[in-house]
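Still learning. Any example?
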Amino acid sequence: MRFTRLLFCFAALAFAVQAADAAKKSALDKPTLEAYIRHVELLPDDLKVNVGDPKPSLFADFLEVPVQVETPTGVYAIRYFVSKDGQRIVKGSMFDVSKNPFQSELDKIKTDLQPSFGEPGAPVVMVVFTDFECPNCRDEAKVLRENLQKTYPKDVRVYFKDFPLERMHPWATKAAIAGRCVFRQSPAAFWEYHDWIFEHQPEITFENVKDKVVEWAGTKNLDTLQLGRCIDSKATEKDIERSIAEGRSLQVSGTPTMFINGRPLTGPIPWPTLDNVIKREIAYQKASGDAGEKCCEVKIPSLVK
């Protein structure tokens, strides 16, 4: 009789443990993580939260789970790490001291065939995500164009990336498509377009952006017929989509956002602050050499064996 009761107690205990395990929440369950994030971030119910699939991270015991929040002003990325047992959550960034602190960002940035200016092989690479209709982007573009080549003619290489915030700026995507059409026809003319459209930003509307661009192109000896067809067919729209996707993978949520050798800087940055960051990065690269532009080295196979 006593043995039977003992077996019953063990069975009840095992059932209780199983029930507790079943009831235990796991952050690897997407609805559970979304509910938890909504509470932590105080996110309203009407905002859409997209929880991505877990992927390996720098910490062996944690998985990185990308999260995007869709708001009226754009898509905001938040980086979370979830322990493999689903019980612990870390928000933020992780670093490997054996690598550049911004190696994760550097790995995601693609500069091939992108509009650029500055010295090839420069120790400092600046990648700028911008929006042609954004007033802050206009102001920052002026800072960059007036100061960088004059102050750092051999030390900085700048790459342009489109990140139109279409929900806030209705003609930004059209302008981005047009800019890439100009770039396809004449890479050198792109920077003239860049400076012109920012300068004339107040005059441009959703309705007149194409006409304004084609009119400008006619003064630069560009093929206006070809340009108009490119804009109408949205031939460069995929280029814009790739740029936006890259920005989101880098957690870009507003413009302008700059990456200086992978270091993210958001918002309009005054020149004295930017100048200081560049100086520090140049000094750092002299010692580390773990960033900057890796180019311009051509190895010709030897014919002598």
Summary: The first strand starts at residue 48 and ends at 51. The first helix runs from residue 2 to 23.
